[in-house]
Amino acid sequence: MKKLLLLPLSLLLFSCYEQERNCKDFKTGKFRFEIEIDGQKKVTNFERNETIEIEDFEGKIDTSSIRWINDCEYILEKLHPKNRQEKSAIHMKILNTTGKTYTFEFSKVGDTQKQKGTVTKID
Questions:
Q1: pTM above 0.90, yes or no
Q2: Is residue 14 part of a domain?
Q3: Is 4 part of a structural domain of the chain?
Q4: Cα gap 30→57, rounded to integer Å
């Protein structure tokens, strides 16, 4: 009987677990994002302040404006899009944080297909 009472109590405790989300720690700074594309590791470095993100990918510099929705979500829009696809705004959402890294999901605004990634803060 005692074991039956412990089961609901332990389930209740584990269901209350919430992943860490110290999003404010990642609003500004220098970051690195690594992804594998066609079997090759690609690295993007970027620096972000409250309103601007400057990205360096394979020697190409790009600047985007940032509009924060809340501490963990923001919208990115390229300041100088080169084509129609680059004009699309990107919705970014920090899912959880651990130390100097955060896991996020992103998609074009209004799109239901989301992708995930992990970013490391380097400064």
A1: no
A2: no
A3: no
A4: 14
Specify the residue for token string 């209004």: 110
54 CB-near residues (< 8 Å, 6+ apart) = 46, 47, 48, 61, 62, 63
Judge whether 5 lies within some domain: no
User: With the C-alpha atoms ordered 22, 102, 94, 32, is the resulting torsion angle positive or negative?
Assistant: positive
Domain containing residue 55: CATH number? 2.40.128
Q: What is the extent of the structural domain holding 55?
A: 20-121
The string of pLDDT tens digits covering residues 95-110 is 999 999 999 999 999 8
User: Which is nearest to 43 in space by CA: 24, 60, 28, 29?
Assistant: 60
Q: Find the angle CA(29)-CA(55)-CA(28) to the nearest 5 degrees.
A: 15
Q: Domains in the chain: how many in total?
A: 1
Place of tokens 């993007």: 44
Helix or strand holding residue 4 (H, E): helix 2-15
**Contact by Cβ (8 Å): 93, 87:** no
